[in-house]
Amino acid sequence: MAVLSLALTGCIPGRDGDDSDSASGTPDKIVIGATLPLTGTESKTGARFKQGYELAFEMENADGGIDVGGTKVPVELQLLDDTTDQAKAVNLAQRLITQDRVNFFLGTYSTALVEAQSTVAEQNKIPYVTGGGAATSIYAKGYTWVFGTLAPVANLATTEMEWIAEQQAAGALPKPAKVALVWENTSHGKDFRKGVQDFATAHPGSYEIVTDESFALDGKDFSAILSTVRAAKADLFMVDAHLPDFITMQRQYLSSNMCHQLITYGARGTESDAKTALGQTGVDYILSAVWWNKQQGNAGLNKEFVEKFTAMFGTAPEWYQALGYEAARSLFTAIARAGTVDKAAVRDQLSALDMDSILPGGKLRYPADKGGQADYPFVVQQNLPDGSSPIIYPAEVATGKGVAPNPTCHG
Amino acid sequence: MGEAFTLAVSAVLLAGFYSAMAYGLGLIYGVLRIVNLAHGGIIMAAAYLAWQLFDRFAIDPFLAIPIALVVFFAVGVAIYLGLVRFIPRGPAGGVQSLLLLFGVWLVIRNAAYLLFSGNEQVIHTTYATSSVSLLGGSFSVTRVAVFVVALVTLLALHLLLSRTFLGRSIRAVAQNPESATLVGIDVHRVYVISFGLGTALAGLAGVLASTLFAFTPSFGASELLKSFVIIVLGGLGSVVGIALGALVLAAAEVFAVYVVPPYLTAAVGFVLLVVVLVLRPGGLFGQRVLR
Amino acid sequence: MTRWRPVAGAAAAFLALYLAPVLLPIDEYTHDIVGLTFVFMAAALAWNWVGGYVGQISFGHSAMFGVGGFVAARAMTALDLPFVLAWLAGGLIAGGYALLWGHPTLRLRGPYFSIATIGVGEATRLIATYWSDFTGGSSGVSLPLAGNPSKFELYWYGLYLLAAAVAVSYWLRVSRIGLGLLAIKEDVEAAGDLGVNPTLYQDVVLFLSGVMVGVCGGFYASYQAFIDPQDMFSFDRSIGLILMAVIGGIGTVLGPIGGAVVFVIIQEYLLANYSDLYLGLYGLLLILIILFEPQGLTGLLRRLLRLRPHRFRRERREAAT
């Protein structure tokens, strides 16, 4: 067994070689650790976040790097693949932080993974910024090293419900409306559910929730839940799902010949992958609310981001890339403002951050009373048969007009 | 009429798929007394084969069935001759064959990861989202087609086992290998063919599954379990037994939405499995195998 | 072999591991990983009591690992139990859960039992994921960072767990129960004729195994400070225990320890760069072991020590017929 311990431990010296924390010297480079689901069920989204990170790092290094107390220091991204696996996301973060001694950390994507991984950051006291965890439960633990760029999912539901209420007032949707509420059994889904429920409670007599069911993340077969929904004879079909589950569920929904006056899958619907997998008619009139959209304005920071992104990758960015980009950029800004790579100083700058942003509202903050989670409104989009997905709400940024009820339902 | 009727028809459609899926496992167990833990892996691999054929050569999954049958028959023969042959028969080999075939499953899974990544795949045929009206309900075209294929397969199997010399040899070996040898049957050959046939059927099930569900390399675990539930429920007695077992499982799953939240319907099969095993220890495999 | 020699050897190894972090310059990451490995060793040993000593291959041990982990986590968050007591509570309830499904299913033999355990494991995982009041659903449970031991301290707790598991493994082998278990493994009915009560013996062993794996689950909850049902109850976790035991030598007293070392080394080595490769590698290892050396590393070691090639050839010939 002694041999065993040797075999496992190797001979790496120094458990007190903890030098990177010292604020004294300026390093030759700043290493930022990150993991993303580059394979596994969330690989499509992971790849998009990676693009966002890459653009942010490329732009920052284009002029020499981050200005740390007067010296330009290049930033380096050390990105590993967590394969959409929670245990792996945790282990890799542990490894990057305690063995590779990265200076800062950019979080992974999807609520479940961030929920697991952020604990490692908090334990090791390293600033952790994520563009991929939206659930409020992540930020309700009293952690002080974790910052989230995604606004809460409850806001998403609320924004969608506001548009629905407008349609009801105009007589386009029934009032009271029967709602089939279907949510992913994660904090993400629970926040969505809460958003819809709270809105319904605040508007008595307008909504009746006739189905309230959850499903497991990464489901392969939704026929049971869909038959429950079908039996409930609802008007509005409101789901919160991640991209793979959205595609699978919508496919089974269509093949069971189901139709509702309004369909939404939360933030999903406009993705090009969904159009490829389901066909244009398969995604027509789906309502979605997202954290960012390129139609939001073609000026200033937005213009720069969209142009540089298109030049680098040859495609237009979606909200995933924008959030990855903003998460990285806010970390760079905090480092520059701290003027040091000292972890506590950068953490303090993140807490106090107030920077111009491409996100709705134009400002990015990590308010302490929200546990470090950014808070801004959503934009509601709807897919139209011509392939476009204009912003239909709120009115001040709208680029098109929404359609309700769903014209594809016969009878 | 109405909802319960729709559910009943869905259950029957699902049962068709389930019986095709379970037969391969049942055949191998009946003849060789080995639980093919690689069954789920073969189903997954066949789904990927169908996807590749569709994606690269635009071959419709239903037309890919003959290809899959041939390919996976060969795979089954190879697994038998290369690995399973070396495991001793009888109770001592039971655990060994279980672990061996489990290893095969892990290798297949990993191979799929390396070749196709862990990304979820779906086959989007032009008719994937269309439906037909049937007896007043509306059902997915794909599910109906899968049901028809499964029915034809079961019929063909029944004819093979009851009307041909090969089929009779298989049944003889399943009943008693020693006396089968005495009457001049090449038992080794029957083992090889049965393993190949069982694997080919798993391949067929995989192709059918690829038209119904999204899949990743870890797909197949619950298919393996469900197959086992079915052969425990229905016994290996006959095609009818398998079909009945499949129907019980499908109905239990489909109608479970009335009793448990939809979320838990996937657990129904597993609970059913444990209950049936406990109530009928030793299983229904007992004596009359492949009557 | 006299009886004190293995005891003395184990005591020496324990002392060496106890002092190693203080005397040797071990880096933080390795230290933490070794601590966690102790616990996987303990769990693999516990699996082996059922899988190796009785010959009942369980694919459902993640159920007890998860139950132990969540009970311990809830005991710490809701009842404010000190962590050691919380682990014990988790272990006891996990042991009870093992009896609940094990008592009826242990009458099944061979593949029937194995398949039933797959069903138990998967059903438990689904129910646990759904039961979000207790497990937090897919979003899991976070443990308070204060009041929980640090990963640095957990090394020694892991070592204690391992020591306990080794002691029980040894005891189960040399005691009367061990002889009874061997008889059951060879032939259940004959064991009954010899006056061994198979039901009672198997229940006891499964309970002990469940308690140990449950305590390991509790340790894991403290170690990660965050647990969620999809991970705790995952099929891969059950597989991991089987692999460790089979690689090391199924049914041997200390084999699973060696298996766990190989398992963790492979995993750590491949984790960062080839995270997709390890399942297949384990599968290959499993196939090779079953075909060539069913006793795993232990068998290999014995063979190297004895250098008896004739026996090997005879076994191969037997296997081939």
Order of helices and strands of chain A: HEHEEEHEHEHEHEHEHEHEHHEHHHEEEE
What's the gyration radius of chain A in Å? 22 Å
Task: Report the uncertain regions of chain B.
Answer: 282-291
Strand tally of chain A:
16
Helix/strand/pairing category of chain B: mainly alpha
Largest sheet of chain A: 7 strands, mixed
CATH architecture of the largest domain in chain A: 3-Layer(aba) Sandwich
Shape of chain B: globular
Low-confidence segments of chain A, ≥5 residues, pLDDT <50? 1-23
- What is the name of the CATH superfamily of the largest domain in chain A? Response regulator
Task: Assess the beta-strand content of chain B as a share of residues.
Answer: under 5%
Distance between the termini of chain B: 38 Å
The assigned structural class of chain A equals alpha/beta
**End-to-end C-alpha gap of chain A:** 74 Å
Strand order of the largest sheet of chain B: 1-2
How many helices of chain B does DSSP assign?
11
**SSE sequence of chain B, one letter per element:** HHHHEEHHHHHHH
Sheet with the most strands: spatial strand order of chain A: 9-8-10-11-12-15-16
Instruction: Average the pLDDT over all residues of chain A and give the rounded result.
Output: 87
User: How many strand elements of chain B?
Assistant: 2
